[in-house]
Amino acid sequence: xxxxxxxxxxxxxxxxxxxxxxxxxxxxxxxxxxxxxxxxxxxxxxxxxxxxxxxxxxxxxxxxxxxxxxxxxxxxxxxxxxxxxxxxxxxxxxxxxxxxxxxxxxxxxxxxxxxxxxxxxxxxxxxxxxxxxxxxxxxxxxxxxxxxxxxxxxxxxxxxxxxxxxxxxxxxxxxxxxxxxxxxxxxxxxxxxxxxxxxxxxxxxxxxxxxxxxxxxxxxxxxxxxxxxxxxxxxxxxxxxxxxxxxxxxxxxxxxxx
Length: 258
Prior knowledge:
- The protein has 258 residues and is of the alpha/beta class.
- The chain has one domain: Rossmann fold (3-Layer(aba) Sandwich).
- 42% of the residues lie in helices and 16% in strands.
- The protein is built from eight helices and nine strands.
- The chain has helices spanning 14-25, 37-48, 68-77, 106-134, 155-175, 194-198, 203-209, 218-229, and strands at 5-9, 29-34, 58-62, 87-90, 137-142, 180-187, 190-191, 216-217, 239-242.
- The protein has a seven-stranded parallel β-sheet, sandwiched between helices. A two-stranded parallel ribbon has the order 7-8.
- Helix 1 (14-25) packs across helix 8, helix 3 packs parallel to helix 4 (106-134) and helix 4 runs parallel beside helix 5.
- The longest helix is centred in the middle third of the chain and has 29 residues, at 106-134.
- The N and C termini lie far apart (53 Å).
- The mean pLDDT is 95.
C-alpha cells in the first residue's frame, strides 16, 4: 500500500522537528524543508537510524518560505511522485522583538510579516492546487494564542497570527467542497528556539520567559497534530488552542517562586 506524504515547513527545530518525528512514526513519508540543511540532515539521520521509522522515505530541501521564487523552484524540482502531498503542515514562523508599536524595528516587522503571513500563503498557493486535483488532503496551519488574544508589546507578531487565523478559516470555507480538511492549531508558551530568535540570540533573556512554570514543549503540539490526523475521514478538527495550565490567557502566566 502506498504511504502517504506529509510536507512540513520549518522542520529544522522545535514544533516542525517534533512533528516530523511523530509523522514518521505514524507511517508517513516526509518532505521536510527549512533554511538550515545541517539540521534537516540531523533529523533525517535520527529518523532513519530508529528501527521504528527506518523505512521512512525523506526528501529534505533548503527553503526560505519568504521567497515566492524559491517556493516555486522547490516545488518544480520535486520528483513527480513527491508532488502527491496528503498532509501539509504550515509550521514556519517566528517572532522578532518585543516593543511598542511606536518604537518597533520595522525590519523585524517585515521579517514577521514575510515569514508568518506571506510565507504561509506562498507555500499554500503552490501546494494546495495539487491537493485539490487529487481530491484529498489535510492542511494544518500552526498559529498561536497571539492570533486569538493580543498581549503587551506583541502588536505586529499578534497581527501576523491573527492573519493566520483568518486565512485558516477562509481556507476551510473554500477547500471543504474539494474534499480537503483544514485545521488551525494555536499554541501558548512553547519552549523552543522561539524566544531565542525573538531576542536575537540572548539566551538568558529567552530562558527567563519559561521560568517558574511548566511550559509546553514541541512534542505537545506534535501530539495534537497526531490526534488531528488520526480522526475518521468525516471528522475535521477545525481549531485547537493549546495552553500550559499556568497560562490562563496570552499575556498572563502564573509563576511559582524559585
